[in-house]
């Protein structure tokens, strides 16, 4: 029993990731559709293709383990996807909305990076070298997706800031302002 328990945990964590990835296959098209910046939309579409490959890699591992990938729901990803939907529904000006979408997506990538780092280490400990290669491929894609989002944030965040300072007469700006001010008011200093 103690000898097999890490393998059981490993399979459980892989099932969790399988659930996480399949949730993202559904969520990424929505993030792409909500993006105004064409490069950001392209990045989400590109990562959707990678995510489908990641699902396939997990299926290959389950095949090798002679186990089924289903039966677990990743509640962490469910929460992140819900927050992402909340962000998609927000009424921000285009660049601000894109900045918010990047924030939501990077939370997902960091969550996945943690998950894949864990299972990669377990696979190493269990001597599952083929799994290690597959998991490291995915881990590299998640890290690259995170870097890509940071790069896009550099451009998009500066547009979001400029929008705030140069479109003062814009009606959109007024709408954004009225949205921001109440939340500023709630962050009172208690000291
Ligand atoms: Fe993924
Ligand atoms: Zn999870
Ligand atoms: Fe990802």
Describe this structure in words.
With 191 residues, this protein is an all-alpha fold. It is built from six helices and no strands. Helix 1 packs antiparallel against helix 2 (38-65), helix 3 packs antiparallel against helix 4 and helix 4 packs antiparallel against helix 5 (129-166). The structure holds fe (iii) ion (2 copies) and zinc ion (ZN).
Sum up the structure in keywords.
binds fe (iii) ion, 6 helices, 191 residues, binds zinc ion, mainly alpha, elongated, disordered C terminus, Ferritin
Which second-level CATH architecture applies? Up-down Bundle
Shape label: elongated
Low-confidence stretches: 181-191
Small molecules in complex: fe (iii) ion, zinc ion
Beta percentage is under 5%
Q: How many helices?
A: 6
H-E order? HHHHHH
Distance between the termini: 54 Å
Helix content, binned percent? over 70%
* Biggest sheet layout: none
Structural class, from secondary structure content?
mainly alpha
CATH H-level homologous superfamily name: Ferritin, core subunit, four-helix bundle
Number of strands: 0
CATH top level assignment: Mainly Alpha
Taking all residues together, what is the mean pLDDT? 89
Q: Using only CA atoms, what is the Rg?
A: 20 Å
CATH topology: Ferritin
Domain module count? 1
